[in-house]
Write a structure and sequence with these properties.
The structure is a single chain. This protein is α+β, with helices and mostly antiparallel strands. The protein has four domains: about 90 residues, no CATH class; about 140 residues, 2-Layer Sandwich (Nucleotidyltransferase, domain 5), CATH 3.30.420; about 60 residues; about 70 residues, no CATH class. Helix content is about 45%, strand content about 15%. The protein contains 17 helices and 13 strands. Strands 1, 4, 5, 6, 7 and 8 form a six-stranded mixed β-sheet that branches. Strand 5 and strand 6 form a beta hairpin. Helix 8 packs antiparallel against helix 9. The longest helix is centred in the middle third of the chain and has 30 residues. It is flat, with a radius of gyration of 31 Å. InterPro entries: IS1182_transpos, Tnp_DDE_dom, Transposase_InsH_N. This is IS1182 family transposase.
Length: about 475
């Protein structure tokens, strides 16, 4: 006698529930999606076809399509073809869409044509969280992460790569032409000669393509072009491997790990601090915020812009002078006397203030001592120049940066808090995306995908914090 659990015979008649609603429990997350989308004013958010004409073929209401996409991204189903299949067999989607089954082209077109509405929906959910008092005594961690683009590395070109490829094809063409010119002295069949002629013709065509690509690369501002997705860029990842990708900036609340703001960019983290911080301030309606970032964001002008808004900024100070590699004294080995406004060099000499200078749009104060530097015994350890003395340049607002650096050093475990806050959401979203990350091309479409992923992430976080029933009550208030 078998002790396994047995199923029912497949030919046995079954009495299903009379209503589709009986299949979906009261705590099912799909009910949260339904309540949230029904609470939105889709026309004001920028969705198309909310109001339709009386004539012509009817279309699906944007609310139904938005519910479908939120459900898909919440359950790691991002493909429009897979979503189409799910509408035919998934009981939760049958309930959510009221048994509507749009085809994959309609589903894909909705995401493509409603990028503004989807972006505003993502922002609207943050406003809902704000109304629920989720952001009090806010500490926000900012970081960027590279997400793979739909573009192979082989389809990305730089000046060096195109130059090397052109040289290699030139050498190959000359090699085959030399063989063909000397074919009478060697034993080659007619078939071999035909194959070589075809190879030379193909390589000449490829050489013309590479010449055109070289021109485009040299004319491009970044000196890099990607052929499959022109908006993607070849960037270094955390392990210093170059990858064709987008750099997604995010600002995450350290208390509840909600992503308050995000931005898809095409370059490194430097210069993005004020951009992301201003978006967070706008989303929360306050400047009473403490921002944390890693050394990749260290930019004096950027930090000053954030501090001027009234927010606190904590970024580790970095040295990019390259003095240590050159084998000379680093800037941090020169002590600055704030009261006397002068520097003291490692030899003990005083470098007084001499003049002002402009560098990269920043007003700098220059400190130098020509006589002391000329007669110094350790001059070779201070500068490689034979004629010019060692000069110290100090930004006119450097005191504010120094004060910020002192606050950073006093803040305990601040780097650990940043890692625990901002890196976890990136890992979660990348796991949902799968190995290939993005499915679409171009910056606009990639940004729409990112908005849907972050909306799904924030929605799941809130369901974990408040519970599905509690979140539905807050949405309907």
């Amino acid at each position: 006698m078998s002790h396994h659990i047995k199923g029912q015979p497949r030919n046995q008649a079954t009495l299903f529930p009379e209503a589709l609603d009986d299949f979906v429990t009261d705590e099912n997350p799909v009910r949260v999606i339904d309540a949230f989308v029904d609470s939105l004013d889709l026309a004001s958010l920028g969705f198309e076809k909310v109001k339709t004409k009386a004539t012509g073929r009817p279309c699906y209401h944007p609310s139904m399509m938005l519910k479908l996409y939120i459900y898909g991204y919440l359950n790691r189903i991002q493909s429009s073809r897979r979503l189409e299949k799910e509408t035919h067999r998934n009981v939760e989607l049958m309930w959510l869409l009221e048994r509507l089954t749009p085809d994959f082209k309609t589903i894909a077109d909705f995401r493509k044509d409603n990028s503004t509405g989807i972006k505003n929906t993502c922002r609207q959910f943050i406003q809902l969280c704000r109304e629920m008092n989720m952001f009090t005594n806010v500490v926000v961690a900012i970081d960027g992460s590279k997400f793979k683009a739909v573009n192979n590395k082989q389809r990305t070109y730089t000046p060096k790569k195109t130059k090397d490829l052109i040289a290699r094809f030139d050498a190959s063409i000359n090699h085959y032409l030399a063989i063909l010119a000397d074919k009478d002295k060697q034993e080659y069949s007619d078939e071999d000669v035909t194959v070589m002629h075809e190879k030379v013709a193909w390589m000449k065509n490829r050489l013309a393509e590479l010449s055109d690509i070289e021109t485009r690369v040299n004319e491009h501002p970044d000196k890099k072009i990607s052929l499959t997705d022109p908006d993607s860029r070849l960037l270094k990842t955390s392990n210093m491997v170059r990858q064709v990708c987008y750099n997604v900036q995010s600002a995450v609340d350290s208390r509840h790990h909600l992503i308050i703001s995000h931005e898809v960019t095409q370059s490194t983290d430097i210069g993005k601090l004020h951009l992301v911080a201003s978006q967070v301030q706008e989303a929360l309606g306050t400047t009473d915020i403490t921002f944390i970032a890693d050394k990749g964001y260290y930019s004096r002008a950027d930090i000053k812009n954030v501090l001027d808004t009234g927010s606190e900024m904590l970024v580790p100070k970095t040295d990019t002078s390259g003095a240590a590699k050159a084998g000379i004294f680093n800037k941090n080995q020169f002590k600055y006397d704030k009261i006397k406004d002068e520097y003291i060099c490692p030899a003990g000499n005083i470098l007084p203030y001499r003049r002002n200078a402009m560098e990269n749009g920043l007003k700098l104060r220059v400190y130098v001592n020509h006589i002391a530097c000329r007669d110094c015994d350790i001059r070779t350890k201070c500068t490689r120049s034979r004629n010019e003395p060692r000069k110290m340049r100090r930004w006119e607002h450097e005191n504010e940066i120094d004060a910020m650096h002192q606050r950073f050093k006093k803040a305990k475990d601040i780097s650990l808090i940043r890692k625990q806050t901002v890196e976890h959401p990136f890992g979660t979203i990348k796991m949902w995306m799968g190995a290939t990350h993005y499915l679409t091309k171009r910056l606009k479409n990639v940004s729409t995908e990112t908005n849907l992923h972050i909306l799904a992430y924030n929605l799941k976080r809130m369901m974990s914090i408040k519970g599905t029933i509690g979140l539905m009550k807050a949405i309907r208030q």
